[in-house]
Amino acid sequence: AALRDLGSGLGALGRYAEAIECFDRAMALVKRHGGAFSLANVLGRLVILALRHGDHSTARSAVDEAVKALSSEDLYGTAWLLYLEARITVAEGRPEEALRLAARAGSGFMRLGDQRGQNVAKIAEGEALIALGRRDDAASLLDEAAAALADLGADLMAEQARQLRSRAKE
Fold first, then answer.
1. Was domain 1-70 assigned CATH 1.25.40?
2. Domain range annotation of the chain
3. Are the beta carbons of 142 and 165 closer than 8 angstroms?
4. What pLDDT does 1 receive?
């Protein structure tokens, strides 16, 4: 967990190469001593970092590996990976497919009663709508997600929705 968190922190500071090294070390440790959930968690954080830095191939590889590691019975993990895959798919230029993945993620979170997850999935859906040129639909959806996430105390995700919403209105 410490290496994973250090990797996330280094990534936030713009030290991407060092962050990747931390994630590589964390994955090696988790593969030797941890379980599938821990591996999927490290890989999920790596996906987020790689997306922030425009490294789509690393993000795609990490989400593919996480899908293999995670049990299909882990509904929360599956929904989270669908959300991440939707974000990658938009970045790869396939917004229609990303929209379907985001909807599946939202449905998964809804089945679990996870309001935070449902609204996080709306962020990926909003990204896909922007890429499809449906900016008004995206802005409305992202406003809704930002408000709900703020009410739930998920301030960082609410801010991400607000930033994406401002892109929708450009």
1. yes
2. 1-70, 99-170
3. yes
4. 66
